[in-house]
Amino acid sequence: MHSTIDSTCPDNGTLWRLSEDLRHRLNPRLSETLFSQANGYIGLRGTLEGLEESTPERCEGVYLNGVYSREPIPYGESAFGFATHNHKLLQVPSCKLITLKTPGKDYDCQEDSRELDMATGVLSRQQRLSHSLAGQLDITTERFVSLAHPELVCIKMHISATRGSHDLSLLAGMDCIYGSSADANDPRAGSLSIADTLVIEEYRQDSESISLYHRVVDSDFVIASACVDQLTTQVAMTHECQDQTEQPANIYRLNLAEGQSIELVRFAFYHHDTSMSVLKARQQQDMAACFTLSYEQHKQAHIACFNAFWQTAQLQIDGDSQTEQGLIFSLFHLFQSAGRNGTSAIAAKGLSGPGYDGHYFWDTEIYIIPCLSLLQPDLAKQLLMYRYHTLNAARQRACELAIAPGALYAWRTIGGEECSAYFPAGTAQYHINSAVAYAIKTYYQASDDWAFIQAYGAEMVFETARVWLALGHFNAEREGQFCIDGVTGPDEYTALVNNNFYTNFMAKKHLQFASSLAIEFADRAPQAYVQLMAKLELSTTELEDWRLAAAQMFLPFDERLQIHAQDDSFLAKKPWDLANHPKDKLPLLLHYHPLVIYRHQVLKQADTVLAMFLADDEFSVEQKARDLAYYEPLTTHDSTLSSCIHSIEYAEIGDLPKAYDYFEASARMDLDNLHGNSEYGIHTACMAGAWNSLVFGFLGLRMRDSGLHFHPQLPQHWRGIHIKLRYRQRLLAVVLQAGQIKFELLSGAPLSFSCLHQGQLHSLSLNSTVPCLLDLTN
Questions:
Q1: 0.90 cut: is pTM over it?
Q2: Which domains does the chain show, CATH number per domain?
Q3: Active-site residue list
Q4: What integer pLDDT is reported at residue 463 of this predicted model?
Q5: Cα 633–627–372 angle (5° rounding)?
C-alpha cells in the first residue's frame, strides 16, 4: 500500500473505518481521495481543515456535481464535426478554511490523526499540541456532507486548554483561489483552477457569515457559496474581518485558560442556477430551513440516510475481511457520488478529485446502473434521467455526424456535449448508445418501472437505436449480413475497425430490445405509443428494419481458432508479447504512440470478453472459455474496468482461483492504489464492478425476462457470502455457504426464481426461507 492509511480490518469495528496518522503521510494526494465525502451534489476532497497550498503533493477540491465550465478545445488541425468544447467539473470556494494559530509560539504536535467512519459518512480528526511553557491544547474536528440537505456541509471544531494558558487566533474563512496541479503527460489526470473559471459578482461579510456569488466563465451558471459560523465560549475575544474576495475570513483572538474551551460550528451552503435572483431566493429558503436544526440534529439526520442505505446494501464475506472492506469502501463512495437530481450523473472519479475533468462515461450504464438497480433503484433511475435530460444534445450530435433522425450520446461529457478531442478513442465508440439501452433494460428488469419506460425510457431506446441503421449496412460481400464499419470497441488499444464484435453484438441486443419494447408499448399503452411514434416520426418500416438488422447482424468468428474475432483485422495482427513486457512500461498509453499500439494484438481492457458476460446465455460456457483463454493473455488491464469482467467470466466457466484474483484486484483497487493513479480520484466503475463480481460472478445472478436465476460458486477459502438485493419492490436476503445457498424474502410480494445447479423454480413468500443444496466442488 502506497500510504500510511490504516485500512486493515482484524475485526468488525475497524472494518468500517479508515484511519490515518497525519504526522507521517507518505502520499497526501491518495489520502485526500480516499477520505473524500459527498452527497451526490457537493463533493469534498479529503484535504485538511485550514490553508494547504496546492502542490504536486496536495490537491484541494470542493466540487458541485453537474456544474461545469466550458472552454474551447485547441486543435493544431481541426476538421468538421470535431468536438469544439471541453467541460470541466468546477472547483468552488472551499469551506474548509478553518485554522488555529498560536501567535509567537511554536507548538509541538504530539498527536494528529483522523478517521473516516463509512457507516455514517462522518470524518473526525484528533490533535494534541503542546508547548513547554504554555501547556497543552486538545482539538477535535469533524465534518460531513449532509445527505439530508443536499446544499449543506457541516463542520465542528472544539478547542480545549487541557493544561496551561494559551493566546490563540482562530481564522474562519473561505478559500476562493486554490487550484490543482496535475501530470500533463497523463490523460487520466485533470487540471482544475478556480482562477480560470470563476469571476466574483457579489460579496458580503459580517462577523458571523460570508456570502460569495461567482459567475462561471463562458457559462450561464452562477454559483452561490456561503458559510455561517456559530462560536460557543465564555472567553472574551476580539474580532476582525479579513476583507478580501480571494480568501475572506473572520479572525477571532482570545486567551484560553486551563480548563476553558471554544467551539466553532460552521454551516456551509452551496447552490447554483442560471438566474441570480432565483439563486438567491433558493439559497435564503434553504438556509432558513437548515437553521431550524442544531449541528447535532443535522448530523443525526445525515446518519439516518446512511443507516437506511446500509440496511439494504450491507454485505459480509466470511473469511476475507480485506475484500469485504474493499466492497464496503466501494459502496460507500458509489452511494455518496451518484447524482440525485436527474440533471447530473456519476463521474468516473466521482466527486473525489479532478481526474478526467469530472466527465461522465459509459461506465455509468454498463457497470454502475446494474449495481444500483439491485441496491438503490431510485438512484439508478436518476442516473437514467440524466441521459433523458441530455437527449436533445445527443440528437444534435447525431446530426453533426450525418446521422438523422436519431440520437448519439457523447462519449465523455458533463452537460451532454461531446468533450472528447481524440475521436478514434472517443466519438468512434458508438457503443455508448447500446450501453444506455442496456442500462434502461437492466433497470426495467430489476424495477418493473413501466411508468419510467413509458415516459422516458422508450424514447431514449428508440432514438438511440436509429443510429445503427445509419452506421451499418447490409453487406453483399458477407451474404447480406449487417456490418458496422469504422468503430472503436471498449478496447481502446484497437481503434477504427470494421465489425468490432462487442459493438455489433450490443447493437444487435439494442435493436432487439427496441423492437420488443415497441410491441410491449403498443400493447400496454396504445394511445401513448401512437403519440410517441408521431413525435419521433417513427414508422413501421423503420421498426421492421431494426428487426432485420438484428437478425442478420454479422458477428465475426474464426473457424480455425473457434473463437469470436474481436474485429475483422485483429487476429491478423502481430501479438504483443505481454509476458515479457517490462512492468515499468505500463500502462502502454503512457509509453507508446497510439499507432504503435493499434498495429498489435493487445487489449487495454475486456472487449469480446465483456460481450460474453453481457451475452448471458446466448453463448455456451465452452465458447466463453475459449474466447477468454485467447484474449486474457493479450490484455494489459490498463483500465480499471477490466479486472471485474474477467473475474465474472472466470467464475462463470468455473475457474474460481483466477476469478478470485481478479475480484481482489477490483475490490482493493483504490485502497491499495493498484494502478498508481487513485491520487486523481476514485474509480467508481471499478467499485461497482467489484460488487458485480460478487453478485454476477460468485453468486451467478442473472436477470432475465423469466425472472432471477442463480448459479452460485464459492471460492475455496471463503466460508460464506451474505448479501441483500432489491428486485421489483422486494428485498431479498441471500446467504451462500459451502454446499448450500439460502434465500429469504424480507419484504414484498412472493417471488419465483431458479437455481441453475438444480434447474428448477423455487417459490418464496414473505418472511420465508428457501434453502437449495448445491454441488460446489469446483
A1: yes
A2: 5-308 (2.70.98.40), 359-555 (1.50.10.10), 556-678 (no CATH), 699-778 (2.60.420.10)
A3: 492
A4: 98
A5: 95
